[in-house]
Design goal:
Blueprint: E1 5-9, E2 18-22, E3 36-37, H1 41-50, E4 53-57, H2 65-73, H3 94-106, H4 109-112, H5 129-157, H6 162-178, H7 180-190, H8 199-213, H9 218-230, H10 251-269, H11 276-284, H12 305-319, H13 331-341, H14 348-358, E5 366-369, E6 374-379, E7 389-394, E8 400-408, E9 424-428
Antiparallel strand pairs: 1-4, 2-3, 2-4, 5-6, 5-9, 6-7, 7-8
Helix pairs in contact: 1-3, 5-6, 5-7, 6-7, 6-8, 6-9, 7-8, 8-9, 8-12, 8-14, 9-11, 10-11, 11-12, 13-14
């Protein structure tokens, strides 16, 4: 059925209307999923606090015949879709204060879903890193085993068992909901041993962590996990031996590699029960905000929200992993590189929120303090990504400490004039100084 969409002033919204588009990026609002039917006054109030107008899909709205006729009559003659003027740019942070007011007034958590989220709509940490480390490691290994098995089955059948994939990734999501720091530690500790690493599972993890940070509900986290795991499923259709050695890709090699997106989409089309959001992730994970990506060269919000999440998660893991065209960067260096891309390859707000989710110095990464001591990041500080919790392992001469020391940087002064001041001066690559993060919690 052909979509009939019309721009509606948010002052005229009512229950039953299906909101297909906003006048601003979805990721800037609590409605990070794309498209929903208005079910209560709270959602109308939120839309009014964020937007001046929205696009309503007439056919997907649950309205009376009279209401539908009014909307259809508003569609310009000869057009099946009404486009708006340039989106209104609002003052940074203004919508956040409004949404906090709405939370206090209406208890939004009842409408935004998720029984595990707290009163602010976010997921609380319910386990320590030490307690969760073993479960996170086991979940990661099980997901890797499933991924290997799934690739073999898919190469024969040409399709993916989505239900089985959801079941395999459930322990990973459960662990990340309890404490995302533990799973991040698992990923960065395994980057020192490529044989134990799996880029597909790791990318799924970054997607889930980003979704957790954005307070996605469980269904959305499930979709992010499945999509993240399947981003490069199209590589199964590339010619054997097409994988290149370390170095710059030639034009022919790049053209060949780009075909994996279309092949992946075809595999999903041959599969059953594939959510639209998962299809968006696979089809759009190589798109970039400035139009420099592929295959459709989409710009800005032309790329669906789940596609934008997939793009930055995939890029981040590629930066921090050894792959066919570059060596691995330290987590801090990858974060800095993403910052240089904000406003170009990636939307500025997407970069900012992603780095808040994973940290400027990711859990499990090796860092150096201003006094020369070396440590491993144990936990993130969401209020200040530059001040995480550390486990110090080496002294200023880079010799092992008699006893490892835990330092909570957020509780220490950062002012250089203070004698107690401590701050991170550098992030180091995987395995630097001979340190193996995998041994920390054994």
């Amino acid at each position: 059925m052909e979509s009939i969409s019309v721009a509606i002033d948010t002052a005229d919204l009512c229950k039953g209307m299906f909101v297909a588009e906003l006048d601003r990026p979805w990721l800037e609002t609590p409605f990070v999923f794309q498209g929903f039917e208005i079910s209560n006054q709270v959602e109308i109030d939120i839309l009014r606090s964020h937007c001046d107008f929205v696009h309503v899909d007439v056919e997907r709205s649950n309205l009376t015949p009279a209401q539908s006729k009014v909307l259809k009559d508003a569609v310009p003659s000869g057009s099946r879709r009404a486009r708006s003027s340039v989106p209104v740019k609002r003052a940074p942070g203004k919508w956040m204060s409004r949404i906090r007011d709405l939370v206090l007034r209406y208890d939004l958590t009842r409408y935004l879903g998720g029984g595990q989220r707290d009163a602010s709509g976010h997921y609380p940490i319910s386990s320590t890193v030490r307690r969760e480390a073993g479960r996170a490691s086991a979940a990661f290994e099980q997901a890797c085993a499933y991924h290997r098995s799934m690739l073999k089955k898919t190469s024969k059948s040409g399709s993916v068992d989505i239900a089985a994939t959801r079941r395999a990734l459930k322990p990973v999501i459960d662990s990340i909901l309890r404490n995302p720091n533990a799973m991040a530690w698992v990923i960065f500790s395994r980057k020192t041993a490529p044989d134990d690493y799996n880029r597909a599972v790791a990318t799924a993890v970054w997607c889930i962590m980003f979704g957790r940070h954005l307070a996605f509900d469980r269904q959305q986290l499930d979709d992010l996990a499945v999509g993240g795991l399947l981003l490069d499923i199209g590589n199964l259709g590339l010619p054997a031996g097409s994988k290149v050695k370390l170095g710059e890709l030639s034009a022919e090699q790049r053209t060949l590699q780009e075909k994996h997106v279309a092949i992946g989409v075809e595999i999903l089309r041959a599969s059953q029960h594939v959510p639209e959001s998962v299809m968006d992730m696979v089809s759009c994970h190589q798109e970039r905000a400035d139009g420099s990506g592929y295959p459709a060269k989409l710009k800005g919000i032309e790329t669906p929200s789940f596609g934008r999440i997939a793009a930055i998660a995939d890029s981040y893991d590629a930066m921090t992993s050894v792959n066919s065209y570059s060596s691995a960067s330290a987590g801090y260096d990858a974060a800095r590189e993403l910052n240089t891309m904000r406003g170009r390859e990636f939307q500025a707000e997407v970069v900012e929120q992603f780095l808040r989710a994973v940290g400027m110095f990711p859990t499990g990464s090796i860092v150096e303090l201003n006094d020369g001591r070396i440590g491993v990041v144990l936990e993130q500080n969401p209020d200040n990504p530059l001040r995480p919790k550390l486990l110090l392992l080496l002294d200023k001469s880079h010799k092992p400490l008699a006893k490892p020391q835990i330092k909570q940087l957020r509780d220490l002064p950062a002012d250089t004039t203070s004698r107690r001041a401590l701050w991170i001066v550098n992030g180091h690559g995987h395995g630097a100084f001979g340190l193996d993060p995998r041994k920390i919690f054994k």
